[in-house]
Design brief:
Elements lengths: L10 E8 L2 E2 L5 E2 L2 E8 L9 E5 L31 E5 L14 E2 L4 E2 L9 H14 L7 E5 L1 H12 L6 E5 L7 H16 L15 H15 L2 H7 L4 E3 L2 E2 H14 L4 H13 L8 H4 L6 E7 L7 H13 L4 E6 L7 H4 L1 H22 L1
Parallel strand pairs: 5-6, 5-9, 9-10, 10-13, 13-14
Antiparallel strand pairs: 1-4, 2-3, 4-6, 7-8, 11-12
Length: 364
């Protein structure tokens, strides 16, 4: 059946509240608010919906001015809002409109802080699934995300394969390595060592700004490659006693404090570290009989999520004769490449999404 598109590239900011969410830790979290944004319009057949999944420090504002993926979402871009209906929600545990540690616990009238229950990537996806169901979308055209967003895309494909036509994990992994866990632990310890953290009970007072800034500085080092740091900073001085790279890291750390919650940092990084698809069985067995199409993308200079981790996913998919394409793009931007390498990603995504949409429309 032919699919009729509504060519209306509009953006909408919204939120919705669910009565409860059952978490992997055994707690029923109630109520749960979700902040999300949509771009473009859902077609009559509801076959053109793409769920964009943000990375660790992202939020629902993916497209439009100031969006973390504004160079990829919009009219004529990789996620063409003349053709597709793009959705992005803030993850569970976040601090940008979705329920998290800074939200009010209805039983106490105070912020949850460290009494907030432990969360997982699967919990995040379960909440996203509730949102998609509420929007009346039976099957997503695609789920796509980089870094932690890629983990969510994999979780979607494994847990809800019949509701995902295509999955696009970018610069991601099926489980964290010891090194990736180690970097996150350094960030967590920096926050908890700040006297202002106060066991997580800093709301209404002075936040642990110094610890959170240091955590972000550590993160930024892992997002860049050695070559990109040489080209951007070298050994240039900004002041007689300060290297330019030092000034940059301090700036990024201070800006992060203005928009992110320290307790969300603790909860979300823990969720990333606990993510491990192989806990449910050997990776190839998880893709047995799956009909979801995959496009897996990695970057040559990404040492935080190196290409071998993407290849492990691709190998598992190919061992089960799944429909998978893989591209290891040349870049010197390190892990940040998925945010800044626009041209090559756009060409890959545009063609892959177009063919997926044609197939989905034929079956509709």
């Amino acid at each position: 059946m032919a699919c009729t598109l509504k060519l209306i590239p509009m953006m909408r900011e919204a939120s919705t509240t669910f009565e409860k969410l059952d978490l992997d830790c055994g707690v029923a979290l109630s109520p749960v608010e979700v902040a999300y944004e949509t771009y473009g319009a859902l077609n009559a057949e509801k076959t053109n919906a793409i769920l964009v999944l943000h990375a660790f420090s992202g939020d629902a504002h993916a497209g439009g001015e100031g969006g973390w993926w504004e160079n990829m979402i919009g009219p004529g871009k990789a996620f063409d809002t003349h053709q597709y209906f793009v959705i992005c929600s803030n993850v569970l545990g976040g601090c940008r409109g979705t329920t998290g540690p800074s939200s009010i616990n209805p039983e106490t009238g105070c912020p949850w802080a460290m009494s907030f229950p432990a969360i997982t990537i699967a919990d995040m996806v379960r909440l996203q699934k509730m949102l998609i169901d509420q929007l009346g979308i039976a099957r997503l055209l695609a789920v796509v995300g980089g870094s932690m967003g890629g983990m969510q895309a994999l979780e979607w494909a494994v847990t809800y394969p019949e509701q995902v036509a295509a999955a696009l994990p970018i610069a991601a992994t099926a489980r964290h390595s010891a090194q990736q866990i180690a970097f996150n632990e350094v960030g967590r310890q920096a926050i908890m060592a700040d006297p202002d953290w106060n066991g997580g009970n800093y709301y209404g007072g002075k936040p642990p700004a110094r610890g959170l800034a240091v955590a972000r500085m550590v993160g930024h080092i892992t997002y860049m490659s050695d070559q990109s740091m040489r080209e951007k900073f070298g050994r240039r001085l900004r002041a007689p006693d300060q290297f330019e790279v030092e000034s940059y890291l301090q700036y990024r750390g201070s800006k992060f404090v203005d928009r992110f919650d320290a307790n969300s940092y603790l909860y979300i990084t823990r969720a990333m570290d606990s993510f491990d698809l192989t806990q449910r069985g050997a990776l190839p067995s998880l893709f047995e009989g799956i009909r979801t199409r995959f496009l897996v993308i990695s970057f040559t200079s990404d040492w935080l999520y190196p290409s071998y981790q993407s290849l492990e996913i691709v190998s598992a998919l190919r061992s089960r004769n799944c429909d998978v394409a893989y591209c290891n793009l040349t870049s010197h931007y390190g892990h940040d490449a998925f945010l800044v390498e626009v041209e090559e990603q756009t060409e890959l995504l545009r063609g892959f999404l177009a063919s997926t949409f044609r197939e989905a429309s034929r079956k509709a």
